[in-house]
């Protein structure tokens, strides 16, 4: 026999049993004084046990789940932003880069040169602003005032008669001349004033001058024609009328005059004036006066033009170019240039410190919620997931391990790709066996949990790969195929076959992903295809090698292990056959009963069958105390008190659990061994104890029924409930003296109904419909076992003997011949309750 060894898998299993096993509801009762195997006299050991108990109580499964989920989410978030807590080194122009620096996130960098160029172009396109002042509007009153003053002066002269007055008027002529030209704001002109004085300041000269000055002023007179022409090279000017404040765009420079051109224009109007004036000789006066009055009325507004250029420049949006996450900012050994400095400064300036640090908890929260929601969806199909902390711990470790390896493999892929010019690291990412996690989860927890895990790990892997949706599709598809490929795995070769299938699918999907990115018919597509196949093959190899280690460390029981344990040549079963042959035969019959029925109630037939083989292995320690192993010898219970007999019967459960742990049968089988009697009553010895109490003059109520019940827990799974019912039915069927089909059916219904009424099936998932299917299956199997044979003439005379069920005493019955009416009514009632 193998000895239990103290190794790390055992320590992990013990930790799970104490800290996270909420599925076990065994009520541990303190042993009476004097019956314990030993007492703790060491105070230090007692203190350690107390502290351990407090720790286990505080670290309950629910709280531990939240802690693990928070830690995992935070760790994944930090790995997704590897540079989040560090800043790039500060370099100066001309320095040599000490290492590769990549962008930790997407950010924009302003192209200052292009932005400045665009702003200069915008300023260059701004048209010059010229203020236009129609001087004719201002000169008309002055001209009329001046001519009116001249005519008034002539009237004064004509009225004077004395020589003294004439001399006085002559002295005042100088004054009038100065006032005349001062009013017109032009320099005094003796010759012109003399002509006007001689002509008498005629009104037609006045009107002709106003008309001519107004005409030339409305066209526009500029002081510097060369500057104006340069402005027109840009496409024109903006003409701003300072009187009406209207602006018009002028594109034809020919309409404007400089001073020389304006005077020439006035001079060319002489012929028209001679035709229009009554006295043609006055035309020269009009021309001279108009030429003196004109001045530039089109002035370049430098300030307004510059303001408009500034507005145009400010309206130009900066030009940015985008730096993608993972893009190389500077390579190791490169000399730092202006563009490098620009990119490095953009990496630093694009995030504030609080924003950089805040991204980690934000991403951790999103990842945690995502994992939680997906797990809750999967748990709906696997209710036992919540009851067994191993599942959650295993899922977390699997997710953590694959994610970390994928994250680290990304750096390896970059280093490998650096040595090849036409190869990128993305093509090598397909070789990562991400689908192996889905295979493991599917094997241990079912296909649906494997698919939910596929969704989680595919999202995280695609984030590491740059957040590309095509990578998510690749990883999710291959993971789902892997999960479904091992859904009914009963031999280790299935893992390799599934890995090959995943590899073939990956070999097709990987180049398709590269083609989406534009790499068609390239070396990179070939490498991606080879990587996809390699990744699938690695999945099968890794799962095949690591599966036994996981079974050992976590105590999981797969169908493969069940097939190994179901071999009747197993040392423990051979020992059971030798030491307790009756129990061995009883176990084999029960295995046949549950295997035939398990599929009908959607239970695991293999787990139910193998558990039935081992459910009574605890009887090997005291085989002769169980009726099926006495072989006609004296019943040892006749000399024992009923309470002692019940303790011996109860002990076989505890002994069976210890043997299961010793032989590493697995958690599932050990739980069924512990639960296959539930908290049922050992009715035979309980009744015997009451009868003995009455015979001694006592009262039956003084017997505590709890002392004659198994400690439990009640069956928690369909397989455990099946083994319990089969154990009861098979033991009770041995008491039938004439096992006809009708009697077998009545017995089966009676046993199942009593178990149901006693509440033994309350905590497992068996429904009334399942109980109906179980009853039909048991009837068929037992009818085949107890079938009638032809009686030969020389057959010996039949003898009948009443048998007592001292196996478990649970629901055993004695056959007393034909059924009584009350028995028939009870059977019919049971049949009706179970739908038969």
Account of the protein in words:
- With 836 residues, the protein is mainly α.
- It has 4 domains: 77 residues, no CATH class; 117 residues, no CATH class; 175 residues, Arp2/3 complex 21 kDa subunit ARPC3 (Orthogonal Bundle), CATH 1.10.1760.20; 260 residues, Hypothetical protein af1432, CATH 1.10.3210.
- Helices cover 61% and strands 4% of the residues.
- It is built from 33 helices and 8 strands.
- Helix 3 packs across helix 15.
- The N terminus is likely disordered.
Any descriptors?
single chain; 4 domains; four-stranded mixed β-sheet
Question: Could you write a compact summary of the structure shown?
Answer:
The chain has 33 helices and eight strands. By secondary structure, the protein is mainly α. The protein is rod-shaped, with a radius of gyration of 54 Å.
